[in-house]
Give the backbone structure.
Amino acid sequence: MTPDDLVAACAATLRPLEIATNATWWESNVDARDETQRRRAEAEIALSDALADPDAFAAVRAARAEPDLDPLVARQLDLLEQGFTPNQVDADLRREIVELETDIESRFARHRGVVDGAEVDDNDILEVLRSSQDAEHRAAAWNASKTVGAEVATDLRSLVRLRNRAAESLGYRDHFALSLATNEFDEARLFATLAEIDEITAAPFRTLKAELDEQLAIRFGTTVDALRPWHYEDPFFQETPKAIGVDLDDYLGGADLEALTARTFDSMGLDVSAVLERSDLAPRPGKVQHAFCIDVDRAGDVRVLCNNVATARWAETMLHEFGHAVYFDGVERDLPWLLRTMHLCVTEGVAMRCGRLVNDPGWLGRIAGVPAAALADLAPRLRAAARSQLLIFARWVLVMTHFERGLYADPDGNHDDRWWGLVERFQLVRRPDDRHAPDWAAKIHIAAAPVYYHNYLFGELVASQLSATFGNLVDDPEAGRALGSRLFAPGATLRWDRLVEQATGSPLSPAAFARELAN
């Protein structure tokens, strides 16, 4: 069998299995029940079984070693090797991992915290943390946001051990190392970049955090030393609080978020109407409370899940997720099926670039209809808010990435305490007094998207480099077309770092990100 024939045969086998997996994954997130969980697990196991085929894996490796391969064939073989490698483990172990993953994720989707005897969803908790002056009420809401961690932590540690067993059987140090290696990330480069971001952000973040804490201490009638996690507006302190940002709910509260999203991308020459029709955007019981975009079939079935309420936060989330959507939808359909995708940090970069528009005066004026007089007053505060968000989110990613590396290095370690050590080190948020709880396990990504968070930080770097290259995007169809042709259309024909360099003219670096912080 020639390499071309091998690639075609592998794609023919994997394509229907991946589509079934994606479709059942979607179903289990919009309607978390035992039946949808079972169907999802069965589909994932069927795909994993195909990727576990040792003969196909050996053939892919042998073909990849042949000389003078067509570049597109070679690239497809690279992606196949990356997909096959993590699945070359015992079938019972693979099944156990999939079943435990789906069980934990289903429990996340169904879980609701309790405040004052009533069940609350994430939107309810965020509203308390955003608006309440009552410290005890805020603490109760914050604690409710963490109860899912206590529910899943024991099983999550078991899942980490299982993932490590699989990775070790393949000759990798642990699952963290395996995940990076099979997603074209060099671990040394990753942590060198994290160290550089730490150095770039440490001093300005410390200044920002001191200003914020002084304002919060005044607001709550307490001292800076008495501030605790529930005094911030996000349960993980990963978003800019209104004390140092801009309360855009005065302008976006009550807005038609779907219409805003459609107008935004229309102004770039990018049509999202079909994706909007396929998406699930309203909150309800039994539905996962987060947000994501999925390309079900690599052929146009792109969908977004959100839990919208008419706030600036969900406006930003819609722009972010539909940034993913236009990327998925913009991949050249004439490419071979295996190449009709993209690297995670690049799609995160596009999504983050689009999400940043919420703090952009041009977007607020031309798309959201904020009056010019109000924009003149808002403009300097919007710049400060955008800078604050970059700082706050970068520090949060440092927590997550360092935490996950340590979690996989020692699954049985004292991660309840280590989590708060990292939060205090990178975010300067004091842990609750005498707190002994698996608060880390309340972050769904650790279960559902393991070793993923570094993609968000590299996505921020990509977003800044895209801004420097393509400009504002709003009301600029030419820039939208250039983004589509240079970044979206090539799909996975190139490694992520080479694609970014080709699209922007420079290798990815923190330089543009640092310039945005300095402005």
Remarks:
- The mean pLDDT is 96.
- Strands lie at 113-115, 118-120, 292-295, 302-305.
